[in-house]
Amino acid sequence: MSIADNAKQVYEGLREKLEAKYQDQYVAIEPESKSYFLGASFIEAAMAAKNEFPDRKSFVLRIGHEAAFHIGASTS
Beta 59-62 vs 35-39: how paired, if at all? Predict the structure, then answer.
């Protein structure tokens, strides 16, 4: 499995806890250790993971959303 797939699997186990308290924030998940790092911004969460695990890749998700970023304008 990819890093993203593994991280999303870890997120599923954390979903209820994270979405109850940290909706709209970001979480970086290092899937090998199953460690996660919260941040108000994408870069804050990503850097927290990088500082803890400089030689490992992490995956960042926006809590309560399908994607970390939404690109483009909405149509109405």
Answer: unpaired
**Geometric angle at alpha carbon 49, from 7 and 25, rounded to 5°:** 70
Identify whether the C-beta of residue 10 lies closer than 8 Å to the C-beta of residue 31. yes
One-letter amino acid of 71? I
Cβ distance 5 to 35 under 8 Å? Answer: no
d(CA 40, CA 73): 23
pTM score:
0.87
Strand partners, 39: 26
Band of pLDDT at residue 65, cut at 50, 70 and 90: confident
Look at 13 and 72; give whichever has higher pLDDT. 13
What is the rounded CA–CA span in Å between residue 21 and residue 33?
22
